[in-house]
Write a structure and sequence with these properties.
Blueprint (H helix, E strand, L loop, with lengths): L5 H10 L15 H6 L6 H14 L1 H14 L3 H14 L3 H22 L8 H11 L4 H23 L4 H12 L2 H8 L12 H10 L10
Helix pairs in contact: 3-4, 3-8, 3-9, 4-5, 4-7, 4-8, 6-7, 8-9, 8-10
Length: 217
């Protein structure tokens, strides 16, 4: 197994940084619609909402897709995984979110690191890129999930009365759950792909017709 060297940690830090041009800040993953509907109204509810997303929704499913893509042995296998990832998207906006971020990640990463990542959704592209650069799978999953949650906590700060200190406390508590999710999904067995974060899925559908909004999803 590849070792998690300092260089590879820094590489993942670059890929998953807010400065990397995938535009993650523009997507709320349905949180904006949930806030508008009153389903999430404060820090405690934001923490509970994101915990469900991490453990039972897109967090867990993305970790599985990263693992499957990391273990893929050729382009055909990657494309099959990507087809499953797209079919699993519960709404038009969720598909748009993973497609656009994957497209942006693939364009920049492919140009710099010389790996063909074109046409792949975000977790599939990241898993393939990490395998290509011998970045440890578990590390890739964990840092991806932390970046995913960091973006949604930041979205919550823009939508709800949640200050910086409370937001970081929420992120710290959620981060403590990440290692178990990564361990549980390391097999990359897509037969285990599932989601029971139903309100999050419904929120992403409602956002499609929301009149006033600041996020793309």
């Amino acid at each position: 197994m590849p070792m998690a060297t300092e260089a590879r940690v820094l590489l993942l830090g670059q890929w998953l940084s807010p400065a990397y041009p995938v535009g993650a800040f523009a997507y709320s993953h349905g949180l904006e619609a949930a806030a508008a509907a009153g389903w999430v109204s404060d820090g405690a509810e934001l923490k509970a909402w994101l915990e469900d997303v991490l453990l039972s929704g897109a967090g867990r499913s993305d970790a599985l897709l990263i693992a499957a893509s990391w273990q893929a042995t050729n382009r055909a296998a990657l494309e099959e995984i990507d087809t499953i990832a797209r079919a699993f998207a519960p709404s038009k906006e969720r598909l748009f979110e993973t497609d656009q971020q994957g497209r942006a990640f693939g364009t920049v990463t492919g140009a710099i690191w010389g790996r063909d990542l074109s046409g792949l959704s975000y977790p599939v592209a990241l898993g393939a890129a990490a395998a290509h650069e011998d970045v440890h799978l578990n590390l890739t999953q964990q840092l991806y999930l932390q970046a995913f949650l960091s973006n949604l906590v930041a979205a919550g700060q823009r939508l709800l009365p949640v200050g910086q200190t409370e937001a970081q406390a929420i992120l710290r508590r959620l981060t403590g759950l990440i290692p178990a999710v990564a361990t549980d999904t390391q097999s990359g067995d897509l037969a285990e792909l599932s989601s029971t974060a139903f309100l999050s899925d419904i929120a992403s559908m409602q956002h499609e017709t929301q009149h006033a909004r600041i996020f793309r999803t």
